[in-house]
Amino acid sequence: MSEQMDWREETRNIIESLLEDGSNPEVEYTIEHHFSGQDFNRLEKAAVDCFKAGFEVTDAEELTLERGQVLLCFDAVKDSVLDEEPIMRQIALLLPIAEKYGIDYDGWGTYFEE
Prior knowledge:
Keywords: Cytoplasm. Globally modulates RNA abundance by binding to RNase E (Rne) and regulating its endonucleolytic activity. Can modulate Rne action in a substrate-dependent manner by altering the composition of the degradosome. By secondary structure, the chain is α+β, with helices and mostly antiparallel strands. 44% of the residues lie in helices and 30% in strands. It has three helices and five strands; from the N terminus they run αβαβββαβ. The protein is globular.
């Protein structure tokens, strides 16, 4: 439950920052939920589950960290209004998928909209 509450606060902060910067509250946003892990098979299975849950899924990418460690990443993408509740419902669907496969849910992001 506390993890859910942390994501609620994070979600609220992201939305407030975008709106304070003048982003348009009336349009749909492309919400990108970020996942990462080191095991390609686990990541791939999680991506399939995200797709089955109604998300568009990006191809996995390799990211090399400062200490040379390789991380695999993908995004689960869904359009949404920029509102806390629909985004929190998306997070509530995605957190159990990350947990099930032992990968990381790294939060979400979107882009400024005119």
